[in-house]
Amino acid sequence: MDNEEKDNITIDELKDLMALAQAADMQGRNEDVEERLQQFYGKQQAKKRKARLWRIGMAAAAAIALLLTMAIWNGVAENETPQEQQPIVFYIAKPKANIEVKTERGTRLRCLTNNSDEELVAEALPTEAEAERIVVDVPQGEKLTVALPDGSKVYMHAGSSLKFPSRFADSLRLVELRGEAYFVVARNPEQPFVVRTQTMQTTVLGTEFNILAEGTPADCVSLVSGSVKVSAGGKRRIIKPGQQLSVSPEGKLTVREVDMTPYTSWRDGYIYFDNVSLKEALLNIAKEFNCNVEFCHQDLLDTKVHFVADRSEGIKGVIDGLNMMKIVNVDFEGHMIVVY
Length: 340
Description:
The chain has 340 residues and is an alpha+beta fold. It is built from 6 helices and 22 strands. Helix 2 packs antiparallel against helix 3 (31-79). The longest helix has 49 residues, at 31-79. The chain is globular, with a radius of gyration of 42 Å. Residues 1-8, 24-30 and 61-78 have low confidence and may be disordered.
């Protein structure tokens, strides 16, 4: 009997086996003893086969578990951190473009500038263009102040467009706006000033107000001084200084009291945000400087911020101001504002 077989036999079984062997020697191995010995050996062989199958099964299970572990590990290695959020990129930037001044028919105009290159005076128009309206397109990353023929001024936000006549000869001083602009209207009770947008029409005699009109639910008129009448969807409302009227997609007019600082600040060359989400603030900054935004952490998007910066300091000055808040880490890489 070899050592492997002994390892599978208990002490009591070994004693029984020795007793059977002695009895076999003494009695000439009678059939009863021989039969019992064969049964004993058969049981031991069955135990050995069962043990081998169990060991093979365990080895196979271990191999499968190892393969699964390696597969999971490889998946983690490839993705590094399965729970890590992927950056969100907002593509705001558009191809670099110059400010364009042209007629409705597309004739390019050379206009004069007054005091600085940022103020355009609609004068010296060719005779054949006098009957046409003028279109001024301000690309993203630029700003412009337009001096209208009646002496009114329009501070145009980046990415906006204004359409107006070369001279106000009709009973109304009518202009059309797409985007955002701040109006300082020269008073003339005999000739009301009207700003028409895709969703509403604002009528004034002489006042200061800001209009956001991009064809979205955020379209609104914010009144700084004087009074204006806003018409939209067959409805009309008159608002007072400090009030803002917004137009819903269904045409509903809503009036509320608001702080006018954000509107007068951008007119004066400042970037100002008060209790707005970080996402909203950076998307507006990106439009100001014609760049894109990347958020590396989605949970920062709704963080409320109060922020002010001088636009003349450029994007680097704005980035430095954002980092001074110590809320987020911001960098400017290539043409991208990156929030870590």
